[in-house]
Structure formats: C-alpha cells, structure tokens
Amino acid sequence: MTNAKPAARPRSPYFSSGPCSKRPGWSAAALAEAVLGRSHRGKPGKARLKRAIELTRELLALPAGYRVGIVPASDTGAVEMALWSMLGARPVTMLAWESFGEGWVTDVTKQLKLKDVTVLTAEYGALPDLSKVDWTNDVVFTWNGTTSGVRVPDGDWIAADRAGLAICDATSAVFAQPIAWDRLDVVTYSWQKVLGGEAAHGMLILSPRAVERLETHTPPWPLPKILRLTKGGKLIEGIFEGETINTPSMLCVEDYLDALNWAQSVGGLDGLIARANANAQAIAAWVERTPWVDFLARDPATRSNSSVCLKVVDPEVTGRPADAQAAFAKSLVAAIEKEGAGYDLGAYRDAPPGLRIWCGATVETSDIEALTPWLDWAYAEAKAAMPKAA
User: Which CATH superfamily is domain 268-385 in?
Assistant: First the structure.
C-alpha cells in the first residue's frame, strides 16, 4: 500500500515561530504610507511612532499609568534594558523551563553576576513549582516558553501585594493569550511574533512600580546609552512618546501599524486570542486521533496556543539513540519543506527533537488543517526510510 501525498497544501505554508507568518492578505502595498527619507524625529515620523504606541495601549487595554516604549534590539533588547537597569535592589528569583528563560538566567548570574539569586527550573514540558516563588524578590520569567510550548496558566500565582518586581518576557504570548497586566511590572515583546511584524524592534511596557524602581535605584555597573531609561534620576519620558533611543526603521514601524490595524479588524485582542485558540485546537484534534505524536507540554492547562511543540511517541522511534531520534524528526520536517507544504516546523535547536508549529493569530485555521495530513504523510515516509533496529 502506497503512502499517497495529500491532495491539498496550505495556502500559506509559513509556520515559523519567529519571525512569524505575515497577516492574511499582506502585501508590500501595506507600507505605502511609510515615512521614508525623512528624520524619525520630524513631525511625520514622530506621529507614526506615537500612533504605534497609542494603538498598542488601546488593543492591549493596559491599566492607567502603564508606559509603552519602542526600544532597540527586539525582545532581547527590551529584556536586557529591564535587567541591567532595574535589578540589584532586591534578591532575584529566576524561572526557567526552556531556552530563552535559561538565557536570562545566564545574563543575571554570569554577566551581571548578582549574588543573591534563586533559580527555579523545570525540564522541557513542565513548569517550575510556582508556589515556591518568593515575592519579596524581583522575579524574572517568560509568560510563554516559545521553545517548549509551556506557558504559565494565568497570573493568579503572582502576588498582588508583591514587594519585588514581576519582570516578564511575554514575546510569544502578547496578543495571543490573556495577560494579567495588573500582576506585572515589566513586560517585553517584539513585533515579529504574534502580529507577524518585522524584526529588530522591541516593546517595553512599564508599570508605575517599575518607573519608581528606575527613579530610585542606581545600578552599580555602567550602563551603555542603548540600555539607559533614566537621565538625572528621572525616567526618559520621550522613549514612551515615540522619541526612540536610536533610529528605528520606519518601514518596520509602518508594518507594525498595519498589523495593529488588521488586529482591530478581526475583533481586537479577543479576536486575536480566539484565532490562536482555534489554531491550537485544530492541532489538538489532530494529536487526539494520531498515535505517533503528543504535546511536549504535559499539562493541558499549561499548553501554549501560539508556539505549539510536539514530540514523536512511537516506541519504534523513541527506543532508538538520541541522535537517531533527532535525525528522524529532521527528515520528517525536510520532507514537508521539499513539498512546499510547510516551512520552519522543526523544534528549536536546544529543545528535544520534534515539531514546533506556530499557531498565532496571523495563521489561518484552514492552513493548520491542511498541514496535518502532510505531517502524517511525512511521518510515514520517514518511518519507511528508517533503518531497521539492530
């Protein structure tokens, strides 16, 4: 019996977890109003930057008093600004259960070299014990583990009366999942995730408590200009009004504005979350009926609806050495890419071998549904080509 190829391919075969798929119907014509060849500090440029901040605030329904800033170097730059500018006033608790959280642990322990640091970790597929978090400390964590597909279930575990700051890398969660803004003091993300914008720019959202920390705490280490959020002991308010630290790409700004306008057209934040949920549910329905695959995230309550990570559970594959399992997963992904049916489906390089399928709002559920038969086809092809076990 032959393994017939599926009859239909996804209309948009882009499932990368960053940069993510552009919004449905996107074309370069969306950038026609970009302020090009002009200073970003002139009136037209500042107006577009300020509009991006205002639309962000409106769509996310941020609490009163929260600042929204556009900063350099994507989500990474935004997180680094927070860590280097705010930490050191209190002990720190770091949470890590995947690659990016582990990266922030490295920064705090080996670059900032803070001494009073507690690190709570979990292996891929699980969360650390959140009940062990001491909220007299500053706490740094990812809301959604992009490389593990494991997210925090909600914000209830974050103390409302916390003494420390809650610093959250939410780059694959903002616009896809409900965020407990009142429980967070610093939130970062980048345009190229859920809204499918272009890369290189980060977003930094600060609560009044975070601003207070910036204005009352002076780090003992030198801060390069690109990380500075204060001047003369006061917040640089211009950063949060469109006066960026360095020169932004106005093409990227226009693309972000296009994505925000599209988000409004599909029902705003609720519409975006519903689209991501529908995509994740399409994957879940396929996993339910497919014996060879399962979620990497063990607890359904902590499974991501944006970066959905999967593992092969066929004993004939999992019983082989780790390098053979990795080769099997790579061959599966390569077969689908060769057919043009799906791109960038492989697990992150530091994660266990498997699949990672972006299900954020810019992906159409019909494309997820068209992809899953190709996953089954590629699995059968890889299985047929697999060397016999010794």
Answer: Aspartate Aminotransferase, domain 1 (3.90.1150.10)
